[in-house]
Amino acid sequence: MTGPAGRVVRVLVADDQEIVRTGLRMILDAQPGIEVVGEAADGLAAVELAGQLRPDVCLLDIRMPAMDGIEATARLAGPGVADPIAVVVITTFDLDEYVYAALRAGARGFLLKDAGPDLLAQAVHAAAAGDALIAPAVTARLLAAFAESGSGRPPRQPVEPLTDREEQVLAAVARGRTNNEVAAELYITLSTVKTHVASLMAKLAARNRVEIAIWAYETRRVRPG
Q1: Residue-wise pLDDT tens digits, 12-68
Q2: Considering just the CA atoms, what is the radius of gyration of the chain in Å?
Q3: What are the phi and psi torsion angles at 79 (to 5°)?
Q4: Is the CB of residue 172 less than 8 Å from the CB of residue 186?
Q5: How far apart, in whole angstroms, are the C-alpha atoms of residue 32 and residue 129?
Q6: Nearest 5°: phi and psi at 60?
Q7: CB atoms inside a 10 Å sphere around CB 172
Q8: Whole-angstrom Cα distance, residue 194 to residue 214?
């Protein structure tokens, strides 16, 4: 069965616990449009297997032997990777330093292992589509703190000024709204939202929605709470 985009998203699962890998495979294989094509028990094996299989999305645990999920993410999806593979990090530990490191390394999603099948499937589909999804439980706190933990340099300036509508979409994205929610909130079509998000990514040199949201916090366009 195909997914929202009319194709099957191929996923590689990496976790050092076999029972967790088995559970994730069962959950994902039961979702429309998702197929698990490989499993790895550590980060090094995940990077090697990903190079062979070229999955659409890698689902990585953080704490793994040989190479942790952060380093594996950097090797698969980091800024310097010529042909990156989308990565979603999934972990038991809701620790800020893990979230920061995963997103800095290039992850397109961050979920807790109790996220549930629906959110897990959403994150995989979002990553495959070039989007990003973070567990709602950590989004606002994460983005605010992430901005505060920046390099200390002034936030980069957009290559062109943002329009009023782009500012509105920016604020909604920074608050964790989905495209459908943004469309309903601003009374515009879904395709118009996607156009504005694409324009924001281009103007801000952002790789995904997470980086758009981080920029909104860094520039104080959106504030915690």
Answers
A1: 999 999 998 998 999 999 988 999 999 999 989 999 999 999 999 999 988 888 888
A2: 17
A3: -55, -30
A4: yes
A5: 15
A6: -115, 135
A7: 23
A8: 18
Rounded average pLDDT over 183-188: 92
pLDDT in tens, 148-184: 655 555 667 888 989 999 999 998 888 777 788 889 9
- DSSP states of 105-150 as a string? HT-SEEEETTS-HHHHHHHHHHHHTT--EE-HHHHHHHHHHHHHTS
HSE (side-chain half, CA atoms, 13 Å) at 100: 12
| Token couple for 130 | 């070039």
Question: What is the spatial distance between Cα 114 and Cα 119, in angstroms, rounded to a whole number?
Answer: 10
Average pLDDT over residues 131-160: 66
Percentage of residues of the chain with pLDDT beyond 70: 84
Q: Yes or no: say if 57 and 128 are a contact pair by the CB < 8 Å rule.
A: yes
CA distance 30 to 75: 29
Q: Between the CA of residue 95 and those of 90, 101, 110, what are the distances in Å?
A: 12, 10, 11
Select from 214, 12, 11 the least CA-distant residue to 104: 214
Is 206 in a helix, a strand, or coil?
coil
Q: What residue type is 155 in one-letter code?
A: P
**pLDDT at residue 125 greater than cutoff 70:** yes
Least Cα distance to 114 among 142, 87, 91, 138 occurs for 91
Tokens 């190479």 -> residue: 67
Query: What is the spatial distance between Cα 161 and Cα 216, in angstroms, rounded to a whole number?
Result: 14
Q: What whole-number distance in Å separates Cα of residue 200 and Cα of residue 194?
A: 10
Residue 194 C-alpha from the chain's centroid: 17
